[in-house]
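haha ok so turns out i had the wrong file open the whole time. this is the CORRECT one, sorry everyone. sequence first:
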Amino acid sequence: MRTNKFRIVVLSLFSFSLAFVSCSKDENSANETSAISANKFGVNFSGTFVQQDQMARPAINTVFIKSGAPKDAFNAAIPSEMGTAYRSIFESRLLALNPGYTTNALGLTASQFTGILSTDVLNVSKTAPTTFFDGTNVLTGRALADDVIDTELLLIFGGPTGASNPTLTSDNVNANDKAFSNKFPYLASAW
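then structure:
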């Protein structure tokens, strides 16, 4: 239950932050900075900001990047540069966690799979159902009820059919402690 509460809090914070953040390689102009500083909420967003964490795919950088300087550098990395910089680190960690890894349920080799994982972004498809993994669609977004941790464990330890290492392919947290709402923002009420 604790994992699901954490997921809901992270998702809420992520959703809230989307209202205030936009990505660009360009520096803010003076006009953009003024507009950001003088928002309708009275919160001052002027100054220099530093990205502290990557969390598009929960637990991925927690498992594949060592804490300390390597994790700090990964968390501040530009997503388009992550794959090149961290793929070999992810692959060596994957093979340390699962020395018998050949391919996973998606048919991806260690190199192919870690190439996807090492770029910690949330992929979104405009044409497929929004899901982290539903047995057919993979990484086409993330629905609120998706069991992201089970999917990641299955892809790391489940082997080509997803049936290998059955004790390692689930965190055994199969439901939230409260049901989601059917009205926006769909999260369960505070406990």
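Residues 1-49 form one domain.
again sry for the mixup
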